[in-house]
């Protein structure tokens, strides 16, 4: 069922996905993310080199003393998983750590290019922060890196579809 309106949180999810889809090797980035998606609920999507999966955490509400009157302020954590699946020859030419650090830098650069997650000239978020990355590697399994970021955003106290204060 298509929805006619999306809550601010969904608009931010879409912005994160679009931002990462624009990570393409060229003058701005060193790598190209092969596909950018949210987790496949069926579990039938095998990992691929430079595949990017966006895991969305639960929103955490900020306390009232740091939230503007008439608003709710939320922090949403994203764990952006990028698979690095290189051949033995590729890893002999360029070590795994170099791939990992380059992928991480490109993803962080993309996320921090617009910390306000702007869509159609409208800033959706108060801030985007990058946190400690997590490497995953197993000689017999997929390997790569999680880039962790947190987006702080606000909605109307009574309406998660609106950013306009209920006090205005």
Which terms summarize this structure?
six-stranded mixed beta sheet, 8 strands, STM4215-like, two-stranded antiparallel ribbon, 168 residues, alpha+beta
Structural summary, described in words:
It is a single chain. This protein has 168 residues and is of the alpha+beta class. The chain has a single domain, classed as STM4215-like, CATH 3.30.2000. 22% of the residues lie in helices and 30% in strands. The protein has 3 helices and 8 strands. The strands form 2 sheets. Strands 1, 2, 3, 4, 7 and 8 form a 6-stranded mixed sheet that branches. A two-stranded antiparallel ribbon has the order 5-6. The longest helix is centred in the middle third of the chain and has 17 residues. It is elongated. The mean pLDDT is 93.
Secondary-structure arrangement, i.e. CATH architecture: 2-Layer Sandwich
CATH superfamily: Phage tail protein-like
Shape: elongated
CATH-derived topology: STM4215-like
The count of strands amounts to 8
Measure the end-to-end span: 33 Å
Q: Which strand-content bin applies to the residues?
A: 25-35%
Q: How much is the radius of gyration in Å?
A: 18 Å
Main sheet record: 6 strands, mixed
Proportion in helices? 10-25%
The SS-based structural class is: alpha+beta
When the domains are counted, the total is: 1
CATH class: Alpha Beta
Order of helices and strands: HEEEEHHEEEE
The number of helices is 3
Low-confidence stretches: none
Mean pLDDT value: 93
């Amino acid at each position: 069922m298509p929805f006619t309106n999306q809550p601010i949180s969904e608009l931010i999810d879409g912005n994160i996905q679009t931002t990462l889809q624009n990570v393409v090797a060229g003058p701005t980035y060193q790598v190209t993310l092969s596909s950018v998606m949210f987790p496949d609920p069926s579990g039938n999507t095998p990992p691929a080199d430079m595949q990017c999966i966006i895991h969305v955490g639960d929103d955490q509400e900020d306390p009232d003393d740091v939230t503007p009157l008439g608003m709710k302020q939320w922090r949403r954590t994203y764990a952006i998983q990028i698979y690095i699946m290189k051949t033995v020859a590729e890893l002999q030419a360029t070590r795994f750590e170099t791939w990992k650090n380059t992928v991480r830098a490109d993803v962080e650069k993309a996320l921090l290019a617009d910390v306000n997650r702007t869509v159609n000239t409208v800033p959706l978020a108060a801030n985007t922060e990058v946190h400690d990355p997590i490497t995953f590697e197993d000689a017999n399994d997929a390997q790569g890196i999680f880039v962790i970021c947190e987006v702080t955003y606000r909605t109307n106290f009574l309406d998660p579809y609106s950013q306009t204060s209920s006090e205005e």
